[in-house]
Structure formats: C-alpha cells, structure tokens
Structures
1.
Amino acid sequence: MSRLIVISNRVAAPKPQGEGGAQGGLAVALSAALREYRGVWFGWSGNKTDQFTGHIDFERYEGVTSATIDLEEQDVDEYYNGYANRTLWPLFHYRIDLAEYDRSFAGGYERVNERFAETVKPLIEPDDLVWVHDYHLIPLGAQLRERGLQNRMGFFLHIPWPPSRLMVSLPFHEGLVLSMLAYDVIGFHTEEWLDSFRNYVQRELGGHCDADGTIHVGDRSVYAAAYPIGIDYKEFVAAANSAAARTAFDRLKKSADGRRTIIGVDRLDYSKGLEERFLGYRRFLEEHEDCRGQLFMLQIAPPSRGEVHTYEIIREHLDELSGRINGEFAEVDWVPIRYVNQGYGREDLAGFYRASTMALITPLRDGMNLVAKEYVAAQDPDDPGVLILSRFAGAALQLKDALLVNPYSKEELSDAIHTALNMPLEERIRRWRSMNECVKQEDVVWWRHSFVSDLEKVDIAHRGTRRHDVPSLAPQPIRP
Ligand code: ADQ
C-alpha cells in the first residue's frame, strides 16, 4: 500500500494525552484518516523563527509521523494572516466587503508555498500519494510539479468555492485557478461548490467539463468531484457515552434547573452567523414572552485568528450584543444567553450536545460544518434533540431532516426555535434517525476512502510527465 503524505497549513497529528488542545474540524478529520495509514503529515508548526532554514521537526505517535517547519514573522503576516485569512477566507465565504487585496499578501503566500514545496519534496517517495489541504496551499501542487514531482496528487478544499462573479474580484484569479490544474484530483464538500468551480473554469478559462467529472483546460485535465466530509462517528458516539460526557451532561442539566437548552458551538468567526443568531433568539424572546425563563441559549465560541482585525471587531460586537440582550431580558434568577469563550474537550462537548433540547447552527456560509454532525451523533436515540441548521452550510445538503433556516432571517430563526420546542417525540425520533443514518454511513472513513481511492485510480502513464508553469499571483508592476 502507498503511504499517504498529507500537507496542510497546520499539523495536528494525534498527541499523547494531555498535550492536545481543542482541535478544529480539519484537524479532527485528518487525525482519524491518518491513523490507518503509515502516513506523514507535513505543515507549519505554528511557531515563528527569525530566519527560515527549512529545518523539519519530526514526531511520531500512533503510527503517524508529523513533520513541521517554523515560519518567519513576515511569512505569517503575509501568508497566513494576510492572503489566507484576509483575502481568500472572506472572499470564499462570499464576503467581498471584508476581503483585502494587497500585493504583499499575495507575494508572501507564493513565497510560503514555495518554501513548503522545497522542504517537503525530499520527504516524498515515488509511490506516495500526496494529499494537499485547503485554501492556504492552493498553488503548492504546481510548485511541486515545477520541482519535478510526478506523484499522484490531490487537493481538497474545506471551504466553499464562491460564485464566478465574486471570484473574479480577486486580482490574478486566473493564476490561482490555473495553478490548481497541477493536481490530479480536486475535491469539494458539495455539488454546489463543485458547480461554481466548473462554472468558473468554463467562463473564465475557456475550459470544458466532461460528464464523468474530468475538467479540461488547454492540454491539462483534472478530475473534480464532491466528497462531503464526515465526523469520526464511532469515536464521537464513544465520547458521548463516556463517563466524562455523563459528567458534563449532569453539570449542564443541573445548572439548567429544568430549563431547556439551545446550544451553539462555533469558532468565533463572522462566517458562523453568531450576531444574526443572537438577533433571531432575541426575536423569539420578544415574540414568546411566555417562554422566557423556560429556556436559555448556551453559545460556546472560542476566539480564533486573533491577529486579524475583523475578528477583534466581531468579538467586540458579540460581547456587546450578548450583554445587551441579557440586560434587556434577564431576571434575578434567569439569564437568556450564556456566552462562553473557551474550548472544551470532545467528551464535554458531546455531553453538552446530548443535554440540549436543540442545536442552533446557523452559519451564513460554511463549507460543511462538523458541529451539526457531532450534535446528531451525540443524541439519545430515545429522546433526541432537534437540529436547526442553516441552509447555507454544506451539511444542509445531507441533513435534510434538520429544520433548515435562512440564517439572515430573524423571523425564520424565531419560528424554528418555537417549532423545535414543541416538536412531538415521534417526529424528533423520525428526523433524528434519518440524519443519524447519514452521519453514521458517510463518516470520515468513508470520506477518506472516497477521495483516496479516486486518487489511486489516476493513470499517471496517461497523464505524462509534464512540468507545470506556476502563474504568478503578484506580478511586479511594469516599470518604464
Ligand atoms: P471549521 O470552520 O473549524 O472547519 P467545523 O466544521 O464546524 O468548522 O468544525 C469545528 C470543529 O471544532 C468541530 O469538530 C468542533 O467540535 C470543534 N470545536 C468548535 N468549537 C469548539 C470548542 N469550543 N471546544 C472544542 N471544540 C470545538 C472548516 C470549515 C468547515 C468544515 C471543516 C472540515 O470551515 O466548513 O466542515 O473545516 O472540513
């Protein structure tokens, strides 16, 4: 069997007990996938260095080798805080109003992708499968091909692909997308993101798409498909049944004192729709005076990307808004919103999910959203809670038995909370069973199998041994 080389911005391979923190969606999913492979996971350590040397730190645990490099401060500013999180993240989440275009960001992004390529290439053996992840590393495949790598190489995008008329607002967008054609397989979470990608290739690059999923641009071909990511279902159900989850369950139930809980768990990010969610809940409290005091919202939202200004602003807004709603509606013995800014372990989260009457998961745009799936997996089959889910999350295309809402509409959110509170047990069970079946079948193992087996099928001989030009994202201005 080939080895799997996973390359992502950050590496979060499994660690001995006590060394791990709360992990993001990508980290959780990939740890599970790599456990079964003799894999290497390469990426940035999260640390800074005065001078980039290409030194790699290796660690081995549970059959996974992690290989990490440190980056210079300027790299982190321009590549990570800059092009990845101030340019691509907002644009790909349809927020061109927040996207910042700066040539130095694009230059830093190219430089770090080159540094990744230089450093990881010697670790790759001829039969290895290479699997690159996410928007931080879009041009890495082309950088590796330029250095002569002929391996099967796949790319998976964990966030949405924006509609073409938004994508064209990115300076040198053609260069970015052309560089993606160096991969053999490109994966998206949903057909919707895939359709937008195909549309872009046809409209902007004059390419054409075969019915079998192959996309052609000039003499280049790449297979593109939708592979909806799942959770590690077995691990999560075990977490939900653990003693620690039971303790967390009891803790929340005890403090709820007979009141019902609406739970939300998200990284603190403007794409997650937290302000709109608070406003929808506020609307519910206004419209249903009789329900006040009978329920509360528990919103868990650990801060992320603190070095990016828009994240400071959203944090301030949420502090202010939750305080305002609490001030407006609280009684001496009841507070409507418990707003918590810390991360929790998987067992604690699973216990909190199970103790909650409903989950309110309402991103304005989300590639998939794993919290929705975790909420389903954690439920008591005999008395499951209700999932209220944004129709703009990738997960909505699979979890059709959730109460699907428009996250921008306060009225829809309010109505959905009311419906969930009053939903009869039989309907809750019927909806939960159908969602749980999907979360169980299409788990992270299924996701990885689907992607990796398509990568293994790539016919290298047919592809030939072409090198790949790397189009620039930040060409120097022409000087007279
Ligand atoms: P994220 O934007 O990070 O992921 P999501 O898919 O919801 O979003 O994953 C979040 C993960 O972090 C979940 O596993 C959750 O349990 C965990 N988490 C969140 N808050 C936590 C807390 N307070 N304590 C502990 N754990 C917490 C990106 C994309 C998503 C896509 C994933 C995977 O934005 O759309 O689903 O990658 O591809």
2.
Amino acid sequence: MRRAVVEGVGKYLPQRVVENAEFEKTLDTNDAWIRSRTGIERRHFAADGETTSDMATHAAKAALAHAGKTAADVDAIVLATSTADLTFPSAATMVQNGLGMTHGFAFDVQAVCAGFVYALATANALIVSGQADRVLVIGAETFSKLMDWTDRSTCVLFGDGAGAVLLGASSDSDRGILSTALKSDGRYKDILFVDGGVSLQTTGHLRMQGKEVFRHAVEKLSDTAIDTLAEAGLTTQDVDWIVPHQANRRILEGVSKRLKVPMSQVVMTVQDHGNTSAASIPLALATAQEAGDLKPGQVIVTGAIGGGLAWGTAVIRW
Ligand code: UT7
C-alpha cells in the first residue's frame, strides 16, 4: 500500500508581533476580553510589501531543510490560501519560482480556514495515485490585509504566517496519512465571508457572525474526526495529539470535551498566532515538532472549519 508520509515540517512568522493591548488604543476592547473569549494573546502581522508567497517560500525552505531534502526532490506544490499575492498566477507558482524549481507543477487550493486540510487531502491523493512522489503542502495567509480595523469583533482575531509539510511516498502501510474527510455546506456562505472580490472590483473585508460559526465548529469538527478515525480503524482512545485549526481556545476545549481527549493532548498555538486561517495547522504542527512533542508512530488528528462553511479532518500516523 502506497502512503504519503510526513518527511519534514517548517514554519515562518513575520517579525512584527502585535499584543492585544495595541488594539486598546484604537478600539473599545481590552486584553482581558480578547484573552478570556478567544485565548489569543498576540499575533504576527506581515510587513508592508511582505506577501503570502514570501512567507510560504520561507516555510517551504524550512520544511525541506527539516527533511534533509532540496527543491530538486519535490514533484509538486499545493498551497492553501485565501490571500494570494495576486488574483493570478497562483501563490504556489511563486513559491516554485522562489525555490528555483523549473520542474513539476504547483497550484493553490482555496477552502479558507479548512484550506490546509483540503491541500493535504489533495496532495495525499496525488501521492497515493502515483502522480507524484513528493509534495510540498503549504498553508500561508496574510489575513491582516482583509481586516476592517473598525470592527472589534473580527480584527482582533486574525494573524499572518505560513507553515509547510513535506509529504513523501512510502510503502510503509502503517505510517503517514491514514484517512481524510472533506466537507462543505454552502447554505452557510453568509456567516463568514469577504465582501469583495474580482467581480466586485474590491479586495473587501472579512465579515463574520462569530457566534454562528462557533455553533457549527465544535460539532462538525468532532463528528468528522470520529468518522475519519473510524475509517482508519481507530477510535478517539488511539489519539496521541489533536492538532486543530486555531480559531478560539474555547472551540478547542469544546472539541477536547466532545472527543474525550484531554487538553494536554491538544496542540494550542492560538495564544501566540491568533487565527491564521489555512496557515494555522501547519504552524501548529511545526511548533509541536520543534518542541519535541510529536514522536514517530503517534496518531495525530487534524481538523479545520471556516468560510463556506468548509471543513475537513485528516488522521496521520507520525
Ligand atoms: O477560523 C474560521 C472560523 N472562525 C471561528 O471559528 C470563530 C468562531 N467564533 C468565535 O470565536 C467567537 O464567536 C468570537 C470570539 C468571534 C466572539 O465571541 P462570543 O463569545 O461569541 O462573543 P459575541 O459575539 O456573542 O459578543 C459578546 C459581546 C458583544 O457585546 P454585547 O452585544 O453583548 O453588548 C460584542 O459586541 O462582546 C462584544 N465584543 C467585544 N468586546 C470587547 C465583540 N468583540 C469584542 C472585542 N472586545 N474585541
């Protein structure tokens, strides 16, 4: 059985760190509200002119270095983002160029906060089907460019960054991506969206009915995780780590409770990164890897939900 195994992880965070207190200067908000309602303490914002593909290229290089590979070893790049540098070409082709790759192929995937899981499932399919042997899967976002800085209910939540995972083909049937599930339901398109786009001739700003999204998040993430584990012949008792999309600490606590996996086994980076949309899972994976938390053979469940609504889960044996 051909599997896609994680060979390396890497991350990049822009230099500028914005603490919650900074928002107190311009908005009717405070550090205590943001911490208690979201778990967020700080986030990184990209510098002027620092683009999604710049950050993605840094993260990709870090993942390659971690794996001891070079761009010459990569067949494809799948990049999850909703904040590409330009309308086209894809940010993935910009990363390809940044890595000095003139072979293979590269494309973007857009499923907002669920984007990294969609990209991971797509890369897994490319590898399992034999179309590629090694794929860089990247999540990279500059959500700071989509904020309405007068809307306290959204602008304090998001941050910028990039994370990358290098997947390689393996005949070790016990390791790698064991199962994936992708889901969406467009009936909910109006509870989280950007009110601009090419057709409207504006970039637009992020608009969210936070409470509504929250309502769906815990249930959909937990139930999909249970189904995806079952498909791999596992249960929640087999889980070593949950590496969820980092939107809100209270959502992670809800998932932890529903899955009966303690918070000590939930990787949490939301306090330092905020919500980085498609970048949040690979950033969390790279952070946990750097801390020495992820050990070979461990079962990791990763899942995300966001605009669409679109959501998905993947079960990985590290
Ligand atoms: O990544 C994509 C998926 N996104 C998510 O998963 C986000 C899901 N939603 C959430 O995380 C939460 O719903 C939020 C953090 C967005 C909001 O938390 P909440 O507990 O649902 O608060 P709320 O929207 O019900 O607002 C409660 C109060 C409101 O005031 P009133 O109407 O009760 O007077 C808000 O106006 O908190 C107010 N509020 C704020 N107060 C201080 C909203 N934002 C702020 C703020 N500072 N930044």
